[in-house]
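ugh ok fine here u go
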Amino acid sequence: MFALRKTAQAGALTIRSVARSHIGKVRSVNEDRLLDCSDHRLWAIADGMGGHHLGDKAATMVVRALAQLTETPEVTRSQSIIKALESANADILAMAKAAGHICGSTVAALHVQGREGTIFWAGDSRIYRLRSGKLERLTRDHSVVQDMADRGIITEAQGRRHPQSNVITRAIGIEDRSDLEHAVCSVMAGDVFVLCSDGLSGAIDDAWLMGLLTTSIDNCANQLLNAALEAGGHDNISFILLQVT
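structure:
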């Protein structure tokens, strides 16, 4: 398990980040990867999939492609981030072809400029925003159970226990194009953002998550990790908390 803590200035706003990544209680390899580039106001979660250690390599390729954007004086606009993820998509496809195995990675990324954030995602890694006591999920899972819930076939609670709960419908490195989704959100003083892999969101529901986001993000991070482990720790558990002041 590792932990990170950083601080960034975003216009008149200050954003402090705390990150955690834990292998969990069941998996033999941690296939989650985190990107916490607070100096460039760019954060991301990638959750790899694929045997023969290809999943962790795929997730590494995703965060590495985003990290390379920070080598310029400023992280550029949305198109550059999309281009970086499409490049990672092509690289993962080539790796999978050479290995003869399918592999890929989810991604959930947030880039903040001033008081505006842009989110990018593929798969079931999530981004939440807590504002004025209300927790909002800013991403929609690209997954079989989310599609079923949207059609009213199952409830969100049933989806958590469904045998296909880990089957995603989009990822980086699976198709010729990543089919990445992106959206814009506002960023205000007092906001808390959560970027997480499904090792956290699959272990604790949204109500439980909101109930734990009640103290400093350092304490929250410890409580979230402990809660996911106590719930079974069946998957790798990774998240980044961002506190805006």
